[in-house]
Design a protein that fits this description.
The structure is a homodimer. By secondary structure, chain A is an alpha/beta fold. Chain A has 2 domains: about 140 residues, Sulfate adenylyltransferase (Roll), CATH 3.10.400.10; about 210 residues, HUPs (Rossmann fold), CATH 3.40.50. Helix content of chain A is about 35%, strand content about 15%. In chain A, the strands form 3 sheets. In chain A, strands 1, 2, 3, 4, 5, 6 and 7 form a 7-stranded mixed sheet that branches. A 5-stranded parallel sheet of chain A has the order 10-9-8-11-12, sandwiched between helices. In chain A, strand 9, helix 10 and strand 10 form a beta-alpha-beta unit. In chain A, helix 10 runs antiparallel to helix 14.
Chain lengths: ~400, ~400
């Protein structure tokens, strides 16, 4: 019997991807249906449904679930869920759709990627969603902006996912579905597995976080965000290469697994940290490393809001627990890696290099200190910056 | 309400030290009683009873509890207890004692330190105890040796403890009873507290262990063994001083508490690791750092036997859990502290200095590398070695 944490809700995984044998029929049927274009966020959520990461949801949320997720972090049936997963369309499209209809879901290129059976059409109070989920209605917040820009009508109902997009092909050897990471963990005899989420290459501070997770568990899942990122972010293939050389040279064999998943960041800070923990449970992870300002952006959240929110949950909301770690850095006086919780020294002893300064160093071919990033990692990144230079 | 782990057995702490007001009467009564001298191990166990560390025991074990502790790690009433806590005397003395009698317990100087009401006299199969608890009957094992040397008759029954010996005086500011460490933790708002047990000064590897514990909890209890040690061990006052300078210079204020307790090591390896976890629960610790060869001696135990034994326990045996950490060292390639679980490099990259070699370095005033021990700690130890030189 598996000793891994159970999927969220306690039942089996629920990947909503249609079996290959049924896909052609479904695509043919979709030809005749009203087409609803997906935003990049909605598309990434569809892929999350497809792979089973949003188990036990059957599809996009109806109004009761939307409101529950926003206000109480609970679906109408009581299940813990901290962020609404919704689909929208414009008024014009909505008028052509009746409840009970099937609609075809389209990606940015117009390809059909799924079929939704519309159980409910409804409108939402966007300000409520933004206030509750993002803690702000400021449209400069990238997550808020997407809510404000979405269509006026939400379409709810079960989805049949017909495509995983370019992910399985583009990220071969990295794109692993929850059922697959579970098998990987079981093959390694792991039960206590921490997910380390990253959308960046791993420098020594990230290595330190991952290694704390390894110390107290069986291994770490280095879990890359493969969905749309912020401009200036390093592409996933370069990140993978940089992480590969790090793991090869600095990790004990069999203690780290790399994988990626197709979510698009909402930058909802504490609420998103909860969602990240929730679907990590589906991937089989007992813990999620939650660092400083997890899933944050700008100054919208306090540095440890994403730690504290876990303490407010009712017992049993999540099986997967946070592994809360303070800000992490190299300290000269400690003569090693440390965190705000273990280093008593001052800012002047700590090696901090901002993302902007780091990019500048690469642009100028300055030497990035080995205390900040492993030389093997620097080499991969320098080659990337040279290639786009 | 306290969020600390409950005392072992789930009831209140049971310190067996008699109230000061009743002590004079008890001492006067003891004058008339048969006197039973305690071995140094028995005396240290009496002090453990006195401070409440062996909660919920009422005194030295009877035959059923002795056998249960040896064979099943359970008392007759089912309570988990991994090592028998017994008192012995010679045949001659035993013949003068009837079940139901009170006897006076004496320390090495002949001072009365407690009163035992004898509930049972019994003899044991020493080989069984040694085999089950120590995994060997080899009399070169220091724990086995003490069992083999003890008196032929065990005396069981509840004890009234009349003295804590020299500990409260000698270790003022360090000798804290379970009720006191619990208050210290509560004052600091801690609930997840790991005990780091040491009978040595703390070098960087020990600092690393303690800091892993701090990362994942609220704080660490640096818990010194104050009972009799092996010859060549550094005296407790020097250790305290060396640990003080380490904590002052390298720990964040409010993350570490120092305390000491009067146990004498049995060197029973895995079984003793369980006992260490058990009474740490009484002190209010949710975790015990269990390193390589915890409580071991010589080659009697595999390096991780004390890790594995925790996996064999029935659910609910202990609330306090092990924080299992591999061998810890400075690695040149990692450029920092690491463990066998996080460092993939070879022995040649790791800085290991044996106890013997370290003493030699101090004797010769060689420079101890800062990667092995903090300069402030080295200074304290050098002064000590110079003083005994």
């Amino acid at each position: 019997m598996s000793k891994l944490v159970p999927p969220h809700g306690g039942g089996p995984l629920k990947p909503l991807l249609v079996e290959p044998t049924a896909r052609q029929d479904a695509l043919a049927r979709a030809e005749t249906l009203t087409r609803v274009p997906l935003s990049s966020r909605e598309l990434s959520d569809l892929f999350m449904f497809g792979m089973g990461a949003y188990t036990p949801l059957d599809g996009f949320m109806d109004q009761a679930d939307w409101r529950g997720a926003c206000v109480d972090m609970r679906l109408a049936n009581g299940l813990f869920w901290p962020i609404p997963i919704t689909l929208s369309c414009g008024h014009g499209t909505a008028e052509t759709i009746a409840e009970g209809d099937e609609v075809a879901l389209m990606d940015e290129d117009g390809a059909v990627v799924g079929i939704l059976r519309v159980a409910e059409k409804y409108t939402i109070d966007r300000a409520l969603e933004c206030e509750k989920v993002y803690g702000t209605t400021d449209e400069k917040h990238p997550g808020v902006q997407k809510v404000m820009e979405q269509g006026d009508v939400n379409l709810a109902g079960p989805v049949a996912v017909l495509s995983e997009g370019h992910y399985p092909e583009t990220y071969k050897g990295l794109y692993f579905r929850p059922a697959e990471t579970r098998v990987m963990f079981e093959e390694r005899g792991w039960s206590k597995v921490a997910a380390f989420q990253t959308r960046n290459p791993m420098h020594r501070s990230h290595e330190h976080l991952a290694k704390i997770a390894i110390e107290i568990g069986d291994g770490v899942l280095i879990h890359q965000v493969l969905g749309a990122l912020k401009p200036g972010d390093i592409p996933a293939d370069v990140r993978v290469k940089a992480i590969d050389v790090l793991v090869e040279n600095y990790f004990v064999e069999g203690t780290a697994v790399q994988a990626g998943y197709p979510i698009e960041m909402r930058y909802a800070g504490p609420r998103e940290a909860l969602l990240h923990a929730l679907f990590r449970q589906n991937f089989g992870c007992s813990h999620l490393v939650v660092g400083r300002d997890h899933a944050g952006v700008g100054d919208y959240y306090g540095p440890f809001d994403a730690h504290h929110i876990f303490d407010t949950l009712e017992e049993g909301s999540l099986v997967t627990q946070p592994l809360k770690i303070d800000i992490t850095f190299y300290c000269r006086k400690c003569d090693g890696m440390a965190t705000g919780k273990t280093c008593p020294h001052g800012e002047e002893d700590r090696l901090n290099i901002s993302g902007t300064r780091l990019r500048e160093m690469f642009a100028n071919h300055e030497t990035v200190p080995a205390e900040f990033s492993r030389p093997e990692v620097v080499e991969v990144l320098q080659a990337y910056y040279d290639s786009i230079g």
